Amino acid sequence: MTAVRTPARSALRTLAALCAVALLGAPGVAARAGQPHEPDLRPALRQAVADGFPGAVAYARDGAREARAAAGVADTRTGAPARPQQRFRIASNTKAFVATVLLQLEGERRLSLDDSVEKWLPGLVQGHGNDGSAITVRQLLDHTAGLYDPTTEPAFWAPYLEDGDRDHVYAPREVVARAVRHAPTFPPGTGWAYSNTNYLVAGLVVEAVTGRSAGDEIQRRILDPLDLDRTALPTTDPDVPGPHLHGYDLKGADLTRFSPSYDWTAGAMISTVDDLARFQRALFGGKLLAPAQQRALLTPVDVPGAPAYGLGVQRREVPCPDGPVTVWGSDGAGPGYTSVAAATEDGRRQLVLAVTVFDIAAQLRGEPPVPRSKALARAQQAALCD
What we know:
Elements: H1 11-18, H2 42-50, E1 55-62, E2 65-72, E3 88-89, H3 94-107, H4 117-120, E4 126-127, E5 130-131, H5 137-141, H6 154-161, H7 172-179, H8 196-210, H9 214-223, H10 264-267, E6 270-271, H11 273-284, H12 291-297, E7 308-309, E8 314-318, E9 325-334, E10 337-344, E11 349-355, H13 360-364, H14 375-384
Antiparallel strand pairs: 1-2, 1-11, 3-6, 4-5, 7-8, 8-9, 9-10, 10-11
Helix pairs in contact: 2-14, 3-8, 3-12, 7-8
């Protein structure tokens, strides 16, 4: 089996850039190992602004002790300050919500993760070597399906970036149709490649199983029970409603107004640091899934060389002065915004951080899409290290 990575629009590579400076060079944490402390996020967020992000917001928790902080501005035009309560586009953090819905449906015996895509979406994934009968729901969720990702192509973004049509709508089936015009990246189950196409198909499976929209299912299964009233899954509305952070490219162009249609269940959700933290606390705390599905969520894909990716979430090691700390979480990067959400394996500590630059045009050129920064390293040490 061969692990394959495509240059999909994900925060996985972006976070590596943000972490380019080792944590061992960051200031130490005052608390004693194993003792709850109140994380001081302010130096990290000030660092983010100094490094070129107009705004930065974060939430951290150690046990029952919570901390929130913000730095910079929410809007460079007005100079309004960034605040932790403001919304932002969470991009691929959306995938954890979608995976949760499908795992709940399996727990209700309404589908199986081993069901084929063809069973639920006949004829959708066919042609040019693609075969929906050979792809399972599980393979969609852990990125071993091998489906091509058209969002890696500059031509895909031309309506938004070249024509300036921020209202342009891509229907999910249109994006999938563009994907299956290409041969698979690899035969299903034989490799790993991050692809937003996987989660568009997953959203369509949710709708086929339930007879309701994916947004409605996320709302009634997750957002309403957890009182996540500042979180939503828009479909075509290009605006971010209510108090929000504006997002920018590297030259300072405002990318806030941007149709989320192309991303849908792969990354169109809007949230806040508090709401995202509450969702992950419930998810990793076992409050949203039955035990069998919880195990499936946290079982990394078995492909040599692949990251420790479960179902919509990923395990990774955070470098700390006293040795690495294992965390589970998700991340997101899309036009104007970059974010990360993580929790330690024991659930005691959490961090959600959002900064307001992601330059999709730069990424398509093969250039870094965010400023080089020590900010994430400093925030992770403050929030996640003993």
